[in-house]
Amino acid sequence: MPESRKLSPVGYLWLAEHFKQNPIPHFVESYLAQPGKRITERADGRVREIYPHTQHNPETVFDHLEFALKREGLHLQLLRMILPLIPVEDVASYVRSKPTGGNARRIWYLHERFTGKTLPIPDMSTGNYIDLVDPDLYFTGPTLKVSRHRINRNLLHTVHFSPMLRRIASLHPAKDAGLHERCADLISEVPPAVFRRALRYLYAKETRTSYAIEHETPTQQRAEKFMALLARAASEDFLSEKALVSLQNAIVDPRYAATKWRTVQNYVGRTLAPGMEEIHLVPPTPNDLPALMEDWLKLSSRLISQSFLPPIASAAVVAWLFVYFHPFEDGNGRIHRFLIHHVLARRKFGPDGVLLPVSAVLLNRPADYDASLESFSIPLKERSEYELDDQARMTVRNATLDHFRYIDCTAIAEALHRFIEETIEKELPAELRFLQHYDVARVAMRDVVDMPEPAANLFLRLCLQNNGRLSKVKRKLDAFAKLTPAEITALEEAVRETYGLGADGPIPESGPVAAADD
Q1: Concatenated DSSP letters for 289-355?
Q2: Roughly what angle, to the nearest 10 degrees, separates helices 102-115 and 61-71?
Q3: Nearest alpha carbon to residue 351 among 127, 208, 182
Q4: Cα separation of 354 and 324, whole Å?
Q5: Predicted local distance difference test score (pLDDT) of residue 215
Q6: Backbone angles phi, psi at 381, to 5 degrees
Q7: What residues does 118 pair with on adjacent strands?
Q8: Helix (H, G, I), strand (E, B) or coil at 158
Q9: Residue 508: what pLDDT?
Q10: How far is the C-alpha of 287 from the C-alpha of 263, rounded, in Å?
């Protein structure tokens, strides 16, 4: 860009600077260029629009409001911040000057909702109803007609709490339908006996990888509890405080079991050195949390029972908002991933009873998973004022509620769609192939020696961890003490042939994988 080019903010960016507000950035920012030509720049899900200064000449606050509403969508957090700062009479005069103007009516409606004050303007009695949210730009919810302004309030939830989701190509409902069919086709090709065992295996795999994401290994008892909960994800409603508290109690150490939403400030971070914390997420304060969770529960219940959002996008909204709110002191991440399954199951995405091992994909793609979380958490942290005391307890100094009311969920929904697509196209087929090969390998092993089941399974697992060979150390285990060297060699060959492992061949696509130990 030439240095002589002068860029002046317009629309929401100008309004934020004019009123000295610092909201979470909108997905688009606009400038007037002098001299200049019309340019659209896209990067990392954000849009930069540049207009020639001769094309627009906004002078007043209302000029910029109209520009923003016409060209930049709906930035509800900023509008909530600035509209109450505009004198009532100024807003009333503006609305009277454009009695049928669509954007004037939107400003009128939002000003009254955000201030709680009624403008000295009579109700509209004629004219068409207009949408508050542009349905070509955003996914919208069920319409509520507001007769005073002749507005269709079509937000996903309410004017005081409504995540936003833009319509982009990767979130088209047809893509969800295609993945659903692909998943159904995969399962239909699996023999019934393998399928029944695969369900248990997939539940165990999801449990293990969900804990592994947080560098934890559950006890056998806790793992069994989590698997049982996953099995109930489709049949029970977990979207209440009581149900989520019960879920949290089942998956954490009893000493950290909750009885209600947290009453202390928490955060997500990691310790870099003694006394030095790297903060990743600053959740809402305990005072702001109850109102947010109440709205989140109401919206989430609608998303699992209605279809105004595609299933995967619904799961993203429910699960990611939960982890951003972080309503418990422990267990939030595992519940966040559980909620992905809960929403997909209740929306009947995929065949009945099938659980997609999505956490395995999240575990294998930590940078992409982190990026999805950071799409909101990083700009949030930049706008958070907090202190940590000598016991690493956080105190948040700024108001937090407005930052969480209107989270743009487009990037996280797009990310979850990619994770689910990879799960169905790669991870799930690999798991099913692994189980089918496992059965073939066990038959081949029985032709060599009919070992007790625990010993045979241990042999197979250890061979797969070491590219089809039992290490010298593992050969000395008590479970294999009765095997001859020739039998061990034959058993190894049976495993290698089944899984296509040569001397330098690849390890299996899935299943128990670990480094060799000698």
Answers
A1: HHHHHHHHHHHHHHHHH--SS-HHHHHHHHHHHHHHH--SSS-HHHHHHHHHHHHHHHTT-SSTT--
A2: 110
A3: 182
A4: 27
A5: 87
A6: -60, -35
A7: none
A8: strand
A9: 54
A10: 8
- The CA distance from 114 to 96, in Å, is 19
Given this model, what pLDDT does residue 271 score? Answer: 79
Q: Do the Cβ atoms of 73 and 168 come closer than 8 Å?
A: no
Res 343: pLDDT: 97
Which three-class secondary structure string do you get for 170-230? HHCHHHHHHHHHHHHHHHHCCCHHHHHHHHHHHHHHHHHHHHHHCCCCCCHHHHHHHHHHH
Q: Which two tokens stand for residue 160?
A: 């005081």
pLDDT, tens only, 141-188: 999 999 999 999 999 999 999 999 999 999 999 999 999 999 999 999
What is the pTM assigned to this prediction? 0.90
Tokens at residue 253, please? 């150490």
Query: How many Å apart are CA 75 and CA 79, to the nearest integer?
Result: 6
Tokens found for residue 25: 């950035």
Q: What CA–CA distance (Å, rounded) separates 263 from 471?
A: 52
Contact 129, 152 (CB under 8 A): yes
Assigned CATH topology for domain 169-424: Fic-like fold (1.10.3290)
CB neighbours of 307 closer than 8 A, spacing ≥ 6?
Answer: 347
* HSE value, Cβ hemisphere, 13 Å, CA-based, for 498: 25
CA 301 – CA 289 distance, rounded (Å): 18
Domain ranges of the chain: 1-85, 87-155, 169-424, 449-499
pLDDT at position 3 is 47
- Residue 326 CA to residue 279 CA, distance in Å, equals 14
In sign, the C-alpha dihedral spanning 500, 503, 507, 511 is positive
Contact 226, 250 (CB under 8 A): yes
CA–CA dist 157, 113 (Å, integer)? 14
Q: Which residues contact 56 (CB under 8 A, 6 or more apart)?
A: 10, 32, 67
How many angstroms separate the CA atoms of 84 and 230, rounded?
Answer: 46
The DSSP-derived string for 13-39 is HHHHHHTT--PSPPSEEEEEEES---E
29 phi and psi angles, rounded to 5 deg: -130, 140
Predicted confidence at residue 191, as pLDDT, reads: 84
Q: Of 303, 376, 394, 279, give the one whose Cα is nearest residue 77.
A: 376
H or E element that contains 70: helix 61-71
Tell me: cis bond preceding 35? Omega within 30 of 0 counts. yes
DSSP string, 361-376: HHHH-HHHHHHHHHHH
Q: Cα(50)–Cα(52) distance, rounded to whole angstroms?
A: 7
Cα 378 from Cα 71, distance rounded (Å): 26
Distance separating alpha carbons of residues 7 and 39, to the nearest angstrom? 12
Residue 168 sits at the vertex; the CA angle it makes with 69 and 81, to the nearest 5 degrees, is: 35
Tokens of 184: 């159904």
**Residues of the chain falling short of pLDDT 50:** 1-3, 503-507, 512-518
Q: What integer pLDDT is reported at residue 512 of this predicted model?
A: 47
